[in-house]
Amino acid sequence: MSTDLRDGNQALFEPMSIARKHQLFDLLCDIGFREIEVAFPAASQIEFDFVRQLIEQQRVPDEVTISVLTQARPHLLTRTLEALQGARRAMVHIYMSTAPLFRQTVFGMSQVQIFDTVLAAVEQTRAHARAHPETEWMLEFSPETFNATEPEFARDLCDAVVAAWGCTAENKVVINLPATVEMSTPNVYADQIEWMHRHLAHRDRIVLSVHPHNDRGTAVAAAELAIMAGADRVEGCLFGQGERTGNVDLITLALNLYTQGIHPGLDFSQIDEVARICTECSQLPVHPRHPYVGDLVHTAFSGSHQDAIKKGFAAHGVDTVWQIPYLPIDPVDLGRSYESVVRVNSQSGKGGIAYLIETAYGLHLPRRAQIEFAAVVQAHMDRDHMEMNAETLMRLLDREYLAQDKPLKLIESRLSSVENGTQQSVNVIIERHNECIECAGVGDGPIAAFIRALDVPIRVQWFEERAIGQGTDARAAAFVGIASTERAQTVLGAGIDSNTVVAAFKAIVSAVNRLPSMSPPPRRRSITRRFLWADEHRSTNRPSKSVILPRCLFFQDFSVINSL
User: Fold this and answer.
1) Which of 14, 215, 318, 520 is 20 to 30 A from 159, alpha carbon to alpha carbon?
2) What is the pTM of this model?
3) Which residues pair with 478 in a beta bridge?
4) For 159-179, what is each residue's pLDDT tens digit?
């Protein structure tokens, strides 16, 4: 049962307007709630008017029961019952605090007086129900602060309410046992619920409900254990909104069940839309680390996490049980995509980088390419200290590998077989230092022939080629590791083309251009020096007083100034 419109609303800086309450009510109905506590009609005119509009404008779906809350006081109950006039089906929720602290300090009442007050409210409600048979009436009773109440007293009071209402197994009464202020570990609360479950006189006539608050931060755990202990029903709010630290979070509770294979009967398949409407209505933000809903909960920045997630997706088959490392739920089930599952910052590694590029561009980086490119990305991150998205990573990959066309640039290539049929010949046009050169080579395969045509002292250490896309639009991505005959260090190159051979040639050119031996020597400049003694130059900004600069040697590089 959702108490967002009552318990959640009364805890806001600015309680919701009637328009916002209608918006949230419609959302709760769409999600699938069949019992919704809509107001405390005796608290304010807005609360009263909202209930009247729901009834008079027939805005309550047939399958939904609206509930209203009231204290066990005659005048408040009268006003509450007036608000429900003409409802098709309605639940009257009566509450009274029963813990010793409230009996003695707040009310100054004995246990007998508490009994009399509650039973009088039940009888008043029952009399009104008999006078208005056009409405299907239901009763809910909460011994508020149940978790701080003597168990025997709470049991006897609830038994008396059940008897006074005259319910049956077909028309049950809701007995709600709130942890109004959470003050123990969840297992203790569950023990209290189990004790009531076992000792209530007419358990078959009761819907046993719990209402955990979150003062200790364990409301969800308390609700889950309470269900295991015998509870039939949970009251709470979306995102756990409510007094102090809030109520039990029904989204977290529901999706916890979902991850265990139990469908909660609520539809959170568009969780971002749920979050948007709740934020608009409550004016409260959703924390980015909120379970299941926050912007970052399905996101991994850590390199080891990213690597595990990437491997999990690679091994995950269609229509198989969801088992992905670090992802307890499939984001798609919540209406989200996989785009934000992996995000890259300075804590990330090769797996996350490769995952982003592959999911965004279909480009699968070989492991050896992942290792080298991760170092390039890390150096970039250490300098800029910014998160990198897939587009930024691709630009960096292009700049570092794919766009390497200096000093060599492949202009054209033609491949043919040698007459003996065992070797291949390649004719290429290469641009070098703005000059086009035509050259040719013969080898056992296209790559060997191309290297001979380039006439550079290199050897291929490894070569891999992957497809990007499918069908007529498919392209080839080639990755090669080469080393010069003079040094053992392997240098990576990459190339992309619709032709697989040309992609390989581009990768080789990329690698050759990245060889240290191909880097141009540092440019030498003609430097004009002037040595000026500082005490020969005095400030002219202040006519009345000259400032003598410290005696030192100035160096002036006019070639630098002229180049600017």
Assistant:
1) 215
2) 0.72
3) 465, 495
4) 999 999 999 999 999 999 999
